[in-house]
Amino acid sequence: MTPRIEVVGIDSLILRLFDSIDEAHMPWMLAAAKRLRQAFGAALTDLVPSYTTLLVQYDLLQLDDRRARTLIDEALEGLTPEAGDAGRCHDVPVWYDRRVSPELETLAERSGLSVAGVIETHCRQSYQVFALGFAPGFAFMGLVEPILATPRLSTPRKRVPAGSLGIADRQTAIYPQASPGGWNLIGRSPLRLFDPADGSLLQPGDRVRFMPVDRAEFIRLGGDDTPFEVTR
Amino acid sequence: MSLLIEHGGTLATLQDGGRHGVRHLGVTQGGAADWISHGLANALLGNPRQAAAIEITFGGLTLVAESDVCLALCGADLDATIDGEPLRPWRSFRLHKGQRLRFAQPRQGVRAYLAAPGGFEAPTMLGSCSSVLREGLGGLRGDGRPLAEGDRLNWPGVSPSPRELPAAQIPDFGSPAPLSVVLGAQIGDFTGQSLFDAFNSDWEVDARADRMGVRLLGPELRCTRRSMISEGVPLGALQVPADGQPIVLLNDRQTIGGYPRLGALTPLSVARLAQCLPGTRLRLTPVGLDIAQRQHRRWLGAT
Question: What CATH number has the domain bearing residue A101?
Fold first, then answer.
């Protein structure tokens, strides 16, 4: 790890910790985020972690560029990774079904697996939450088995229903709200992932395992089974 | 004490200083796009500068007063009238019970700000009432929706006497001021020719412009970097997608993004850009970080 600090805006610095996406980096990222919050205190306007970087936005009335860099340097001194059990584990129910998943069969064709095989492969492992972004509570998770890796749709959809589970390259995520989006949709979850009062259910560093449920269980858990074609 | 919306127009939303400290949740910043005009409208009424006001985009909004009130109007000249009589911006003014305030279309600028005594009342969500439709956050009912026919707006304050903003404080939306860019991010990955073109060419504001971002049309900028890992993006970020036409990211931008950037506009320049109509021609100019920070502090301190 060779941290670099770069200017990205009048009041924003980016701290680059790594150059590649790797689960092994997460404990370092979490530790750095915690240290930065402590170091900046009330002078921190926003802290935006992503896969390998932390965007630090500071209050210009309290700090200048030089002082902000010094605080980052001090925060990183003697940094040690967060303990392995820092993140929570979530079992996330998903209804994998053609009616709500327009790309389930596309992925089966691409991969040479059966639809059941696609589902089984997607559920077999647990996933790391790498970052939140794009929309409130939208958690970028990975890494998906290479056989399921599928590029984004060439033209994003105008509307993807809330709860939709998608794959983009080797990442997987659930759309917390209805929004535009270009990921390949393979299922739908009944869970409410974001609430303004409670924040985001999934946090960077958490691990997620997808649990296939049938339609009855999906509805019992509060899912909306409106077919995809109707939701457009 | 209320105002009744008769027509919502193109886009009228409640905006305050925006949401801060929540971008790590994926929640956008929001807030007034032209934060300078927004702050001046509030200042005319003695409000905190970041109090909730209506951001009126392009026009079409009509409101009726259900009680006498002193309101303030700053920002774009959207050909406003009170019962047919012209109303110029950069002043506070009385609106009597039954009078109708109408915004037609832009004469100069894009966004007008209408403030009320003490700020308009709306539920605070994650520290702000700023309305963001795609996130379902903020606004009059807390669902992110813009103002619409039948909505009633209230305010808690007492109406002061009307006054005009001193001419020296009024921003000039007529002259095409160059927009200042703090250089940084992936600027080293752009070709030399592109760096020259970025700061020595005219850029035209595209019609594809909203609260998320404003696309600029001009010479094609080339970045040698093939792909990058998504990272946090600041206000004003000057990102360049594969087609080489830059997009300046505004208040409702996504929290992280994966396009290479030349840097970011200063907040003062973001406010100016938010008032540029499609077709406006402008220039980008680099500014030193120290100078930009001093300018910004001076602006905050002087007003």
Answer: 2.40.100.10
Q: Give me the domain span that covers residue A42.
A: 4-76
- Give A154→chain B minimum CA distance, Å: 14
Inter-chain residue contact A133 with B234, CB threshold 8 Å: no
B150 and B202 both lie in a single domain: no
**Distances, alpha carbon A213 to alpha carbons A47, A95, A138, A191, A225, in Å:** 36, 5, 21, 12, 13
Using the 3D structure, point to which of B139, B169, B199 is the last residue of a domain: B169
In this complex, how many residue pairs, one in chain A and one in chain B, have their CB atoms less than 8 Å apart? 139
| DSSP SS3 for A131 | strand
Q: How many domains does the structure of chain B reveal?
A: 2
Domain membership flag for residue B99:
yes
H helices of A77-176, in order, are 104-111, 115-124
- Which of the residues in chain B have pLDDT under 50? none
Q: How far is B50 from chain A (nearest CA, A)?
A: 15
Give me the amino acid identity at A232: R
Rounded to the nearest angstrom, the minimum Cα separation between A98 and chain B is: 26
Q: Is the same domain home to B187 and B297?
A: yes
- Specify whether the backbone of A39 is left (phi greater than 0), alpha (psi in -120 to 50) or beta: alpha
Tell whether A195 is within 8 A of chain B (Cβ).
Answer: no
Q: What is the structure's pLDDT at B302? A: 63
Tell me the one-letter amino acid at A77.
E
Which residues in chain A have Cβ-Cβ distances shorter than 8 Å to B297?
60-61
CATH code, domain carrying A41: 3.30.1360.40
Closest CA of chain B from A11, distance in Å = 8
User: Exposed (0-12), middle (13-18) or buried (19+): which is A61, by Cβ within 10 Å?
Assistant: exposed
**Which residues of chain A does B25 touch, with a Cβ-Cβ cutoff of 8 Å?**
132, 136-137, 194, 199-200
| Same-domain check for residues B142 and B202 | no
pLDDT 10s digits, A164-178: 999 999 999 999 999
pLDDT by residue (tens digit) across A80-138?
A: 998 866 689 999 999 999 999 999 999 999 999 999 999 999 999 999 999 999 899 99
Set of chain A residues whose Cβ sits within 8 Å of the Cβ of B20:
45-46
Last residue of a domain, one of A47, A76, A105: A76
Partner-chain residue, chosen from B256, B263, B300, that has the shortest CB–CB distance to A133: B256
What domain range includes position B121? 3-169
Cβ atoms within 10 Å of B16's Cβ, excluding its own: 28
Tell me if residue B101 falls in helix, strand or coil.
Answer: strand
Q: Is residue A83 part of a domain?
A: no
Contact A7 B182 (CB under 8 A): yes
In a domain, B255, yes or no: yes
Q: How many domains does chain A have?
A: 2
Q: From the list B185, B266, B293, which residue is nearest A6 (CB)?
A: B185
A25-78 pLDDT, tens digit per residue, is: 999 999 999 999 999 999 999 999 999 999 999 999 999 999 999 999 999 999
Whole-number average pLDDT of chain A: 94
CB of B126 less than 8 A from some CB of A: yes
- Give the mean pLDDT of A201-212: 96
